[in-house]
Amino acid sequence: MVIFAWLSTRQGNTVVYYPNRILKGLEPWEGGSRTRNPFAWIKEALSSTEQDVISMSGIDTAVYFVFMSTVLGILVLSGVILLPVLLPVAATDDAIRKHSGQTTSNGTFSDFDKLSMANIEKGSLRLWAFVACTYWVSIVAYILLWKAYKHVSAMRANALMSPEVKSEQFAVLVRDLPDVTPGQTRKEQVDSYFKSIYPDTFYRSMVVTNNKEVDKIWGELEGFKKKLVRAETIYAESQKSGGSEATRPTNKTGFLGLCGKKVDSIEYYSEKIQELTKKLEAEQKVTLREKQQRSALVFFTNRVAAASAAQSLHAQMVDHWTVMEAPEARQLIWSNLNLKFFERITRQYIIYIIVFLTVAFYMIPIGLISALTTLKNLRKYLPFLKPIVDQDAIRTVLQAYLPQLALIIFLALLPKFLLFLSKTEGIPSQSHVVRAASGKYFYFTVFNVFLGVTLGGTLIDTMKTIQDDVKGTPQLLAKSLPGNATFFITFVALKFFVGYGLELSRLVPLIIFHLKRKYLCKTEAEIKEAWLPGDLSYATRVPNDMLIVTIVLCYSIIAPVIIPFGVLYFALGWLILRNQALKVYVPSYESYGKMWPHMFKRIIAALLLYQLTMLGYFGVSQFKFTPILLPLPISSLIFAYTCSKKFYKAFCHTALEVACQELKQTANLEQIFKSYIPPSLIADKQEDEQFEDAMSQVSRSGSFV
Amino acid sequence: MVIFAWLSTRQGNTVVYYPNRILKGLEPWEGGSRTRNPFAWIKEALSSTEQDVISMSGIDTAVYFVFMSTVLGILVLSGVILLPVLLPVAATDDAIRKHSGQTTSNGTFSDFDKLSMANIEKGSLRLWAFVACTYWVSIVAYILLWKAYKHVSAMRANALMSPEVKSEQFAVLVRDLPDVTPGQTRKEQVDSYFKSIYPDTFYRSMVVTNNKEVDKIWGELEGFKKKLVRAETIYAESQKSGGSEATRPTNKTGFLGLCGKKVDSIEYYSEKIQELTKKLEAEQKVTLREKQQRSALVFFTNRVAAASAAQSLHAQMVDHWTVMEAPEARQLIWSNLNLKFFERITRQYIIYIIVFLTVAFYMIPIGLISALTTLKNLRKYLPFLKPIVDQDAIRTVLQAYLPQLALIIFLALLPKFLLFLSKTEGIPSQSHVVRAASGKYFYFTVFNVFLGVTLGGTLIDTMKTIQDDVKGTPQLLAKSLPGNATFFITFVALKFFVGYGLELSRLVPLIIFHLKRKYLCKTEAEIKEAWLPGDLSYATRVPNDMLIVTIVLCYSIIAPVIIPFGVLYFALGWLILRNQALKVYVPSYESYGKMWPHMFKRIIAALLLYQLTMLGYFGVSQFKFTPILLPLPISSLIFAYTCSKKFYKAFCHTALEVACQELKQTANLEQIFKSYIPPSLIADKQEDEQFEDAMSQVSRSGSFV
């Protein structure tokens, strides 16, 4: 934090600490003064309203804060009762001391353990206090979750009924078009179909094309353009410094600029750009005409028509003409749009199976890899490493860490891998992919970190017992829980000290930015690219938070001292991320809070796990009235069912009463239509003014539109 | 059949044998001649097309015939392969004879058993033929079911896109209206809400009222009207026969006309009618103004708007403004429309639990009742029965049959009970209630008749074994199967001889009709009421057919001789019901084939049961390659999933491409609106001409409309 306070006031770092404000065209600091209180950000974060967050960072971020504050609320309210009630109750009993002869052999009981439920005599009447607290936590969770769901639903409705024109509210995505009848173009087919159903509200359609080729050429072209600007900047600088005898920058044409013929950069790039522009134009024409696919975007003249169309069944055969709400243009995944109905379903199930296998058995391939990559094997198959490996110091380090290395690499790559898997499912929008990946990551962390650590070796030994008696699982879990309380308290503390410290000070992006600026970046555009921040990256952030929720909830009764750590984690997280959301991260999409039902479901899952654990734990404590806890998991299920019945559908679709609100101005349909044309398909000449004046554009993409 | 051929040609019986034709205004016989071939109906049934069935009896009946012919097709195609292949294979082995020492003790093996799989040596290679046949039956079922689903889907689409104006296609049912804001009527609330969402296509709305009171008065009034007509007819007849001194009919005013003051019928009834008419009018006004409920019917100006509205989410809170397709006016259950969203869900689950308990434990209360109603108890608590009960002959009969009596009464009342339960769920349409009841009845028959008889006592003895080893159930089932083959063959045969014989000859309705005509009916209306046929009563018919399907499928491989009986059952059923559908039954509602997905699911359930049974049976036969059958249940599940994904949604909603077809004439919206006004709320004076001229009607029901 101190590092942040110092670093963030320096002029050169503003782009790292305030990129979101700069991109929005605001001053980095509100007052504009250079000498400001280094802790002003705390005040700013605390005083910022939800509306500020929505306007700076969108609904999705605001929903994330609702999640944070709901969990915080649950933990604080639980803590307020649990700490003063349970700690004295536990501390004044002394089961551990009495049975110290039996228990010290299992481990050393510290003062921490005295404050936990393990210190209660088995079958003692004091357990009633713990039962009451178990109920208290659940009831607090229900009330706050209900309020939060209602709040988020209203927030989503507000955003959707905003009088601003938003392109995606006028469009629907149509997939699984049937084959075209001969003599009819794809466009005619789509138009005539929708015109007959919506004679008044249909505006026009855009047939989806296979843009792989044209995207590639466009990417190359953009790359050369950047290089040209860079070469020109270098040349201009050298002219300035060296006068007339400025050296024109040169580069080599071969692989990575390392080999091949040496050429004059500016000439070479200009030539390449000209060449590629022609190629791009030709490819654009080919794409528009011949690479049309079996899906289309259909635009309507008003929001109600689009919202209603997105929810209605259009064809008698459900696997034809499937219609859904169009995602924002920027998060539409064009390459997934051509997949057929059953292909998507099949892919989905295959991915589920792969994920299940990954979650359950990820240790096997890693074990194999680390077994293969012993030093011996390395020396044998990669002889060029021999001189390095043979040095004593390196060998010791490698020998110790090689097995872990594979695991670390795997864990670092896992989110990317899950994102890739989710994309492969055939999901048409980026935000949905992130949600899907986040769900998968949640299962992975809860299953492997929480359950894995807790049950540890015992699980494998007792595998056979479990097979015979599924009811034993909670008991087994309960038995292994208290021993790991200290471990998890440390885990939570570590998470927020290291994680949030790094997060706030943004040390890594700062260092990368400064390195890049010094050695690589020459042009304005390159510098901007260097500091451009990402978004909040929900795919990993949410599951990590969920893991903390799960851990803290499950230990809340057994070792209530974990609650302050959980509170600290979410309070600090809320504060720091509020700052980051307002000033740093730039959301890369807007899904109007569709993330919330997923978060909700997972909090409920954590709650269920907690309740089942408690059931098992009370059973182990030989508490006669354990069945008194049975209504809890049932009521959790009923609560989740009721909530999803009442709220969930409004998160899948846009309610018509929401869509029918008046707009501030009449929508510019032409502009809405154009916002969906991918950049690689826009004719080069109008590239920058596509939104202002693109009447010629319409005629250009005639075959496409 | 002979009885039918003779009876149906007699003039007086035409109303019993051809009511549907008469009601449609057609001649009972096509040729119109009296002396016709007694078996002409067979020719007529065979030569009738699906279109005939649809026009005479609606889509639902046509779907029922698709079901019949699909099952028939599956059985015929299976039989064609199974009988010539499996019977010789089984007959030429002689496991039974070899092991006769061991097996005859269990029962007597007849020639029938020689033709079954029980005659195959355990672990014999001949079992491969049975494996192949198991696959054959499944594949035939898949292909025919797929075709049938496609066919029914097209039939439904055709009916829905018919150019005829159908009221229900222009209306939607809106439930769960939120509370009215003060100073606003319910009607204003509904109108303003829908006008803002559908400014162009909204026509008008009808607020649902609580009609219980007004229905009661109206029912009484109608009763008195009928009695008046009857009294007048009697008086006219007595005038004709007795000249001037005709006796005016009299009746008593007390209970059931048995006691009380004697009054002149015609005067008394006329007085009553006048009195009730006034009361009705007052009650109508009160109902329309004060008994408005939280639901409404909303009418649109075109079909697409209504179809689309029925599928869209209207309110952000899903439990408000829930919209669904309006059922036909005649099958709308007004009393269920006021139930709230979560009340409906709660009721549904409670009913599910009740049904589950009924299915699983129905023997317990019956056992209790029959234990209580022993002769001893009867004599004790109902002393007035003593003289009857004490007679020797009666006592013997009663002693033997009293225990069964409770069971018989229960089974007779079961369909009514299930219908009542389904209605209590809060389902708004009669056809849906019938579907729900039919599903419940299916579970009951399969669970109790099929599984109950098959497993019999063995199940209870081995209950503990099953609890430990769920996998054992198919094996247990398989072990008990062969012994019951003969029983079920008899069962199927009995079903079609007795059931269909009665069905075709309509002996029971014929006798009732003649009795009524002779002793009770005096007026034309009363005679018409006496012969008025019901509908096909799917609630019991479909589950009974399903039971046969399940039985025949499960035994098809084990004892292939059952197949001809199954074929005969469905072929005869098809033929006879074709006749009945064309000439007798009058459908009481039209759901456009919504019954089909239910039938489909239950055929799949039967198929799954069959495949699991075979898995168990091959296991018992010590066939080493039993796991080769494992893909079958999995592929059944995938097949069912695929079908429901592809077709099912079009059965829940009307596809827009279907709804957007042109109409033959522009719809008379006024008339559509009026068709939904329940008869009890129509002002008395225009009762008969409500459809022709009801402009005054509109102003009358002003507060209501």
Automatic annotation (TrEMBL), chains A, B:
Gene Ontology MF annotations: calcium-activated cation channel activity
Signal peptide stretch: none
Domain of life: Eukaryota
CSC1/OSCA1-like 7TM region domain location: 347-618
Domain CSC1/OSCA1-like N-terminal transmembrane: 3-147
Location within or outside the cell: Membrane
Keyword Repeat among record annotations: no
Domain spans labelled CSC1/OSCA1-like cytosolic: 169-336
Keywords linked to the UniProt accession: Calcium, Ion channel, Ion transport, Membrane, Transmembrane, Transmembrane helix, Transport
Topological relation to the membrane, as annotated: Multi-pass membrane protein
Transmembrane domains' residue ranges: 62-90, 127-146, 349-375, 396-421, 441-460, 481-502, 546-577, 598-619
Similarity field: Belongs to the CSC1 (TC 1.A.17) family.
Protein name as catalogued: CSC1-like protein ERD4
